[in-house]
Amino acid sequence: MDQDNPIIVALDCDNRAAAEKTVGRLGDACRFYKVGLELLTVAGPDFVRHLVAQGKEVFLDLKLFEIPHSVAAAVRAAGSLGVSMVTVHGMGGTGIMAAAVDAARAFPDLRILALTVVTSMTDEDLADIGVADSAEEQVLRLARLADAAGCHGVIASPQDVAALRGALGGDALIVTPGVTLPGDAPADHARPATPSAAMAAGASHVVVGRGVTRAADPAAAFRLVRAGLQP
Question: Which residues constitute the catalytic centre (predicted)?
Fold first, then answer.
């Protein structure tokens, strides 16, 4: 996986044509895309193969939360598509995460990332499901559990990055959805920050969405994000 390209564009589209249009408009500038449940459901795995065949890297955001056997099977299916990253849910516990890691060993380029706390969730949301700790405390707990299970990294909000980098060390992948471009509204994210702030805190990758994909000129918007990450 090419870590010199830290920007992942989220293809949160409800049809394949829209996703292909976005990829076409970004051209060679963008090499890494996130495919989530919506696009995978409407376009199927063939679209993922299509991206990989174009030389793109794919972050397949499945948030797997099932019995270990089913999680392992899904990871093997993802690996066979040629994706670079796949997500499992940290709240599934050690058994699920370890099963995903074991299944990924057959695919040397596949990285398993554990979702910690969804970026839309607040302390109050966690309390609703019986988690008494704050979002920050829960993120760190699940990140340490993921690290012990062998995961290559975690998914967390930009505001959690600094604490995670301190807890996980320099080699872990820390991928941050929930980034917003300067001047944009935070949408559904409860703990946002700008891409440059996330990278400065120690993120390995930032996931950008509507600020790029719905811009009048997505390629120009992407260039602005990339320029903002330059030291």
Answer: 63 (proton donor)
Check whether 226 is labelled as a binding-site residue.
no
CB atoms within 10 A of CB 183: 7
* Structure tokens that stand for 33 in this block: 């895309």
Every domain of the chain and the residues it spans: 7-228
Consult the annotation and say whether 119 binds a ligand.
yes
CATH of domain 7-228: 3.20.20.70
CA distance 73 to 59: 17
Q: How many CA atoms lie within 13 A of 47 on its CB side?
A: 25
Catalytic residues: 63
User: Closest Cα to residue 186, out of 215, 214, 209, 203?
Assistant: 209
Cα distance between residue 43 and residue 62, in whole Å? 14
What pLDDT, in 10s, does the model give residues 119-156? Answer: 888 899 999 999 999 999 999 999 999 999 999 999 99
Q: What is the pLDDT of residues 169-218, one digit of tens each?
A: 999 999 998 787 766 665 666 676 889 999 999 999 999 998 899 999 99
The answer to whether 209 is annotated as binding is yes
Q: What 3-state class would DSSP assign to 230? A: coil
In eight-state DSSP terms, residue 225 is H
